[in-house]
């Protein structure tokens, strides 16, 4: 999963799963296009969750979305494109959530690296609970070919961002290991949230994990 991030203040055109930038559409067409994409992604999430990625059928996704199969291929190219678009949607929402939290904390005068890191982690975990169906789907082993490599790449970037936030020198092994452990704790907790019975239990886990992160974040000595 993607993790605690800070925006740079610049925006690049959103990319299709095949790497091509979206062209600008007239406002009415863009609204219609957005509705079609939302319907397709919602249906894909339902079918992927119920049947797994491998067993999911494009005809069923098209039927549930009430969108013609041809439009599905036009927008996403197939199952892999749908899956990667769901991942991008989750990742972008998590990034917006954590970046907004960090900005709000800094506006309040918080500048302690550990306090900022834990605040960002809390926002990320709360997002994982709010979007738990999608979060759980994306950590399963049943995904499109090549997705594990992409996930590992994003995870490495997550560790690097956390190191910058904690002001840890990744060139030092002890600092690098500490950040990797902290990142693993957050990722593992996000998976546990998917099995929570209700919001009360989820909040207990988030509070517990944040306490663990505070303890583990303190430099040795």
Explained architecture:
This protein has 221 residues and is mainly alpha-helical. It folds into two domains: 21-77, Arc Repressor Mutant, subunit A (Orthogonal Bundle); 86-217, Tetracycline Repressor, domain 2 (Orthogonal Bundle). The protein contains nine helices and no strands. The protein has helices spanning 27-55, 58-65, 69-76, 79-107, 113-130, 132-139, 147-166, 173-193, 199-217. The two termini are 31 Å apart.
CATH fold-type name of the largest domain = Tetracycline Repressor, domain 2
User: How many domains make up the coordinates?
Assistant: 2
Distance between the termini: 31 Å
| Largest sheet, strands/sense/barrel | none
* Uncertain segments: 5-23
Helix content: over 70%
Please tally the helical runs, counting DSSP H or I stretches of 4 or more residues: 9
Radius of gyration over all CA atoms, rounded: 19 Å
What form results from the Cα inertia axes?
Answer: elongated
Q: Based on helices, strands and strand pairing, what is the structural class?
A: mainly alpha
Q: pLDDT average, as an integer?
A: 87
* Portion in strands: under 5%
| Named CATH architecture of the largest domain | Orthogonal Bundle
* CATH class value of the largest domain: Mainly Alpha
The succession of helices and strands, N to C, reads HHHHHHHHH
User: Quick one: how many beta strands?
Assistant: 0
